[in-house]
Amino acid sequence: MRTTAEILNVISKFKDGYVFTYDKLGFEPEKTNAVIIALNRLVKEGKLRKISKGRYYKPQMTEFGELKPDTFQVVKDLLQKDKKVIGYLTGFSVFNSLFLTTQLSNTIQIGCNNEKKAISRGMYKIRFIKQANRITEDNIPLLQILDSIRFIKDIPDTNQNQSCNRFIAILKKLAPERLNQLKKLVLKYNASTRALTGALIDMVEADNGTQIIYESLNPATAYSFSISTQTLPTKDKWRIR
Fold it and tell me: Three-state SS for 187?
């Protein structure tokens, strides 16, 4: 019981929804078994929730019910290691925050530089998307935009015309230097993503700054999207059908 009381004292300093592992509680290694038993007891008592093996959090209650932990908390160990960025939330995980859809998903997608197999954590399916660019804190927002363009056909509860309008609005808000940075990053994406990104940038920039992207494409290849000319007048230049 003393171990339980000590744990409660430690976690009282944690914010609700903060995900932690037993080794983050500061107990001596010889107490590991006792700590795990005490944590599981607190789960049974409803004082803690267990998101997956060895991962716990304090439930956050509101007048509308219990809130799930923030997506970042669920996978933070997969995003940073020793204070170094090793991955970033993307795809289904950011469609909502970019206002591309209002639909939420139990699939969490993470961009990373290495191939990794999908894993599960509780109710969440975690999938990894290989990113060819070096990942930094600075370029993550741009990579999230480019990934969303890449997966435009997978954005739920919307259509590609609506998504294009939203992407144009997003790109218009980028400072010129950030837009130039995005142009360089997209060169390591697949051809269809480069073509669509080029067509979108041409909608917000009039100085032919997409030439480097255009020249990276095979002039004999066309790209299939369900996007109207009214939404994207620049599509023919980029051979978008």
Answer: coil
Question: What's the pTM value of the predicted model, to 2 decimals?
Answer: 0.89
Q: Which pLDDT band, with edges at 50, 70 and 90, does 4 fall under?
A: confident
Give the domain extent around 55. 2-67
Contacts of 48 (CB under 8 A, 6+ apart): 11, 39, 42, 56, 57, 58, 59
> For residues 90 and 109, is the Cβ–Cβ distance under 8 A?
yes
Name the DSSP letter for residue 23: G
Whether 6 and 81 share a structural domain:
no
Q: Where in the chain does DSSP place strands (E)?
A: 19-21, 49-52, 55-57, 60-62, 65-67, 80-81, 84-85, 88-90, 107-112, 119-121, 124-130
Instruction: Give dist(CA 46, CA 63) in Å, integer.
Output: 18
